[in-house]
Amino acid sequence: MGTDPVVDRNTVLDGFERNDLYTLHDFLIATVSFSHTRLSSALFPTSRQITLLQSKEHLFKELNYHNPTLADKLRGQPLEVAVTIWRTQVVKGGIAAAAASTSKYHQESKYKALLQQDPNHPEAKEYFAKQERQKNVQSQYQQMMQEYPEAMGRVLMLYINVTINHHPIQAFCDSGAQMTIMSKKVARECDLYDCIDTRFAGTAVGVGTGKIIGRIHIVQLCIGTTHYFPCSVTVMDDPPPGASEMPFLLGLDMMKRHTCIMDLGAGVLKFRLSPTEYLETPFLHEKDLDESKGGTKGFDVQKANERIRQQLEQEEAEQNGIKNDDDDDDDGKPKAMEE
Predict the structure, then answer these.
(1) Catalytic residues, which ones?
(2) What ranges in the chain are assigned the alpha helix state H?
(3) Domains of the chain and CATH, by start
(4) 261 forms bridges with which residues in the sheet?
(5) Which of 33, 102, 111, 246 has CB atoms 3.0–4.6 Å from 124's, for a disulfide?
(6) CA-CA distance, 221 to 114, in Å (whole number)?
């Protein structure tokens, strides 16, 4: 069998040159971080790239992910208007990057002059020491992104499906928790509230504090359809307003009791049935968990983008407000009015 030929950058793809796709990808990256200090016509998107963006849904989704504000401005716009909007965005980013680079150059020149006058100047030494630290941190960051970029991803907590008194529950598996807990709400839903032994009431202390109502000595935890594991569960009172509630947490006490094994490679929690036999139940995926549990079930893209857009607009308004304040002198008059 032969190998596929190398695809040339100028190969035509659906009426577009492949080079248009590469260039468009550069523009998508540029909307996130404007690292260009030189502005040229080669940096500007052309009508061909904008047409490609608007005609390919997956490309527009990528832009919407990186820059929802720009995507919102481009959505539904005529071709020429969209080109103008994006070019304006590129120019603004290029000017900001050039201004930041110029400011850094003048600042370094200032501290170099101070060191020439006094090699032990504390402020200048601290400035260059900070620059060196940032350089080392950036070097580590680049190495991490090259070797194991998954470290920047969000870690999903471990949940499994269980059933208590015919009520399905998503149990949070936490080997760092000393005891297995259940909320008062879940105790009522599972018809176990009357089984609470209030002699074990108290206060739970850990990362935070919470009121313990009591303890249910035997709760049949059903894994699958036929296997039941008896657990002793501590029942917590309702959390204070604004605090999150933990419906059910499988702690280290019951994991040790049933000789559980967290197999992160296989993505399962194993319950020991016999010296040589284990029952496996899979950890839940993002699609199975609500947003409150770190999942994407019920996730509304439009609402999330709207929140991001409002946040970006607020930050931009605050920056413009600071800039306008800097343009005024101590008397409140614009510097341009000074004689």
Answers:
(1) 174
(2) 18-30, 47-55, 57-66, 68-74, 79-117, 122-147, 184-189, 252-257, 301-326
(3) 12-117 (no CATH), 159-293 (2.40.70.10)
(4) 270
(5) 111
(6) 71
